[in-house]
Design goal:
Length: 255
Amino acid sequence: MISLSQISKSLKKIDIKKGDLVMMHGDANISSQLDKGTIYHKLKKTFLEIIKYLGPRGTLIIPTFTTSFTKKKFFNVKNSKSEIGLFSDYFRKIKGVKRNLHPIFSVAVIGKYSKIFLNSNLNDCFGEKSTFDLLHKLNGKIVCFGCGFNEITFTIYVEQCARVDYRYFKFFSGSINFKRKKRKITTRYFVRDLSKKTDLDLFLLRDVMKKRKKLKMASLGRIAIHKINSKDYFREASKLLKKNKYGLIEERFSR
């Protein structure tokens, strides 16, 4: 079992400070280590502790993606569940948290920079003024809070900036429902070329960043957590792609 104070201590160990801008990829298993209560109660305590730790000048962003929009052509900002797990879906319901309107790569956010991310570009998933571009320009910190390094979606932003040849642009159109109003939307997504082995494999990048002391790691109970700065991640991932154009995906093992 873990305590709430251990959550704050673990964040400090990976160099998260009060006032930081943090994008967190997480798993509910990390909250399950808290004593007593349902998983929902434990998640609430976890998020409130993190928000408290970051303070009023901090910002917490949690991905709440809905890739089903590419098929269903519909996204309801309030009612569409996050499709990447209970951790993110619970966060969007916490008092004070707001969700932006991107139909595929929405995020839920609370804190100082909320307005900036709530007004991010909806017409490109990873382009200029997208959530990920804003995160990069503001040098936000990326945290894997009990989930694998391969979950870092910021990687696709790096790939789009590098115009990797194993992805291509595809447009998706549909409607967004927000405050009982419907809005038509077309957004550009740098999708995978499925003729190649395009699943992310970021262990080479992780090892490089660890060697160069760009990656901070700690344990929270039985589960590992990691942190990197977005600008460091962008720089090192871009360098790796220049050396090996398949350096971030499984295709490199086929060459």
